[in-house]
Structure formats: C-alpha cells, structure tokens
C-alpha cells in the first residue's frame, strides 16, 4: 500500500491556560511596551482545537461559542496564515475551536490557542520547525505566545518573550481560579498603571531573581493589580477573599481580572471555589499545574483505517 504524504489528516490539540505567579513592571520601553518580569505557570484549564487539512489554501476557523471576532482578528486564523505562508503550503486547514478559557481574563487563552495552532500545524504538515523557530513566529502574534510553545514553569522577561524554563515546583498544588463576570483590556490596565505611577525608566533587578530565591508561599505580587482594581473596584472582594484564604500561593493573573489561590489539599481549594461562587457569583475552575503548553493527540493509523 502506498503511504500518504502526511501521517494524518486531522489533529486535536488541548491549549492550556497560564497563570502569572508574580508580575513586576520594570519600566517603560521605547517601543510602546513595558519591560516585565514574571513567572509563568501552565495550568490544566484548556481550549480544544480540532484541526483538519484541506485541499486548496482556504483557512476556516469556527468557534464554539461564537466569539464575535472578525476572522482576520482571530489569533488562530493569524497563526495558521503565518505558518502556512512561511512554508508556501498548497493546503489549507479547518479549525474547530471549543473555548473553555474565559476571554480577557488574564489567562492567555487567545495566545495559547495561537501557539497551539503553530505547534499542531507543524506536526500535521511535518514542517520540521524547531520550538525556537515557532516561538519567533509566535512573537509576531503576541508577547506571551512564545511561552505557550513550551509551557510549564518559566521565568519571563522583556515583553514576556525572553524565557528561562524552570524545574517544576508547584506540581502538588491545586489552583482555585475565580473569574469575575467581566473582562479587562490589558491596554487599559497598563494605561492606568502609567497614570498612577508615571513613566519610569528601566529598573535593574529582573535578572537577580533566581529559582532558589523565588518564594514558594504567600502573596504573588502583581504590579497590575492596583490599576486593575482602580478600573474595576468590584475586584476588591476577590482580592480580599484570596488574601484571607490561607492559601500557599495567591494573587491576580496577568492584567486581570482572574484571581487564584493554590493549596496543597484539594478540599481547601474546593471550599474556596464554593465560597467564591456563593459570595461573588464568580465563574470558577479547579486546576493543576502542567509541564507543557499544549497536548497534541494524533489519531492512530488503525483508528483512521477503521473509519
């Protein structure tokens, strides 16, 4: 039997969310971005992308639920266009995106979907790009897209794209995520940060935090929490709840509005989730850390032959 050019016509990928276990604004840059230092951690909340190769060069992306985003602005579409144009591919793709990661929540859902698209198409078409090449492509789509190519626990600097992979240290924790019923614009939060603190020159210190010196308990500082709460005072009860929770780790992720608390015992995380649902009406998730940014599932040869 003549073998097909590609090992499969379809691939499924789970695109994991992230948390920022600490985020510091180190100053303003000359390119309209802020210099950051942050600790990224992938968690098991995920979107699902089902990607199928198509004849022709069309790119079709369908989301469930419908995100109301024009196709040209969808990061999945842009990621597919980017890698297929890079390779002058004569094929197109159909992507079914099943969203579970809330939008504009500081969890990186859009960026994770973009990175997962790059990784999945690299596998589906056997392009042979290395991860560093995929990260370079991802940076054209967003500052934290490169992180999601590898995922796990990473120390991030620059815009978040200068990454140092760290050994897992939170694998035994259970993370309670509390998402308010509204999103926050990262641009608006950074603008409010600048209004509060003014433009500041670059600070030293992001290189001085080492793996051994990074805290493993208590409040994960986030310089964007103050401007986020200033913009949306409804976030204060979320901050107060995690602060009183006796969690091993707690804080706000990214530019918000999601707050999280990590516990060594799942029962404690579940109790906090129930309290957040009752007291705040929050959307909640119980997650575990992951060592990867996405999980690829390639249908086996035998499964495809049975269809």
How does this model look, in words?
Helix content is 30%, strand content 30%. The C terminus is likely disordered. Strands 1, 2, 3, 4, 5, 6 and 12 form a seven-stranded mixed beta sheet that branches. A five-stranded mixed beta sheet has the order 8-9-10-7-11, covered by helices on one side. The chain has two domains: 158 residues, Ribosomal Protein S5, domain 2 (2-Layer Sandwich); 114 residues, Alpha-Beta Plaits (2-Layer Sandwich), CATH 3.30.70. Strand 1 and strand 2 form a beta hairpin. By secondary structure, the chain is α+β, with helices and mostly antiparallel strands.
Strand-helix topology:
Blueprint: E1 10-28, E2 34-55, E3 59-64, H1 75-86, E4 91-98, H2 109-124, H3 131-139, H4 145-150, E5 153-158, E6 162-166, E7 174-179, H5 186-197, E8 218-219, H6 225-231, H7 236-243, E9 249-252, E10 259-263, H8 266-280, E11 283-287, E12 294-297, H9 301-306
Helix pairs in contact: 1-2, 2-3, 5-6
Number of strands: 12
State the shape.
globular
CATH class of the largest domain: Alpha Beta
Count, helices: 9
In the CATH hierarchy, the third-tier topology of the largest domain is known as Ribosomal Protein S5, domain 2
Annotated CATH architecture of the largest domain = 2-Layer Sandwich
What is the number of domains?
A: 2
Rg measurement, Å: 20 Å
User: Percent helix among the residues?
Assistant: 25-40%
Q: What structural class results from the helix and strand content?
A: alpha+beta
| Average pLDDT level | 90
User: What order do the SSEs take from the amino end to the carboxyl end, as H and E?
Assistant: EEEHEHHHEEEHEHHEEHEEH
Task: Tell me about the largest β-sheet.
Answer: 7 strands, mixed
Terminal CA distance reads 17 Å
Unreliable runs, pLDDT <50, ≥5 residues? Answer: 301-307
Instruction: State which percent range the strand residues make up.
Output: 25-35%
């Amino acid at each position: 039997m003549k073998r097909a050019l590609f090992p499969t016509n379809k691939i499924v990928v789970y695109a994991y969310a992230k948390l920022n276990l600490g985020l510091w604004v180190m100053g303003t840059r000359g390119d309209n971005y802020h210099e950051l230092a942050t600790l990224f951690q992938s968690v098991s909340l995920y979107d699902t992308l089902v990607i199928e190769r198509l004849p022709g060069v069309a790119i079709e992306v369908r989301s469930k639920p419908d995100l109301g985003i024009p196709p040209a602005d969808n990061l999945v579409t842009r990621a597919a266009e980017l890698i297929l144009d890079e390779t002058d591919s004569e094929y197109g793709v159909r992507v079914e995106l099943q969203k579970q990661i809330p939008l504009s929540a500081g969890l990186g859902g859009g960026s994770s979907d973009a990175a997962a698209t790059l990784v999945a198409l690299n596998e589906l078409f056997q392009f042979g790009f290395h991860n560093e090449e995929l990260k370079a492509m991802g940076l054209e789509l967003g500052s934290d897209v490169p992180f999601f190519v590898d995922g796990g626990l990473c120390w991030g600097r620059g815009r978040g794209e200068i990454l140092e992979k760290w050994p897992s240290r939170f694998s035994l924790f259970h993370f309670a995520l509390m998402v308010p019923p509204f999103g926050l614009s990262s641009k608006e939060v950074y603008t409010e940060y600048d209004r509060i603190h003014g433009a500041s020159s670059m600070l030293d210190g992001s290189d001085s935090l080492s793996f051994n010196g990074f805290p493993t308990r208590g409040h994960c500082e986030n310089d964007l929490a103050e401007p986020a709460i200033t913009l949306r005072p409804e976030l204060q009860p979320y901050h107060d709840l995690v602060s009183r929770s006796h969690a091993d780790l707690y804080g706000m992720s990214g530019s918000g509005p999601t707050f999280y608390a990590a516990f060594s015992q799942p029962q404690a995380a579940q109790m906090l989730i129930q309290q957040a649902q009752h007291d705040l009406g929050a959307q909640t998730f119980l997650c575990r850390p992951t060592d990867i940014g996405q999980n690829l599932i390639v249908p086996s040869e035998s499964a495809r032959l049975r269809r």
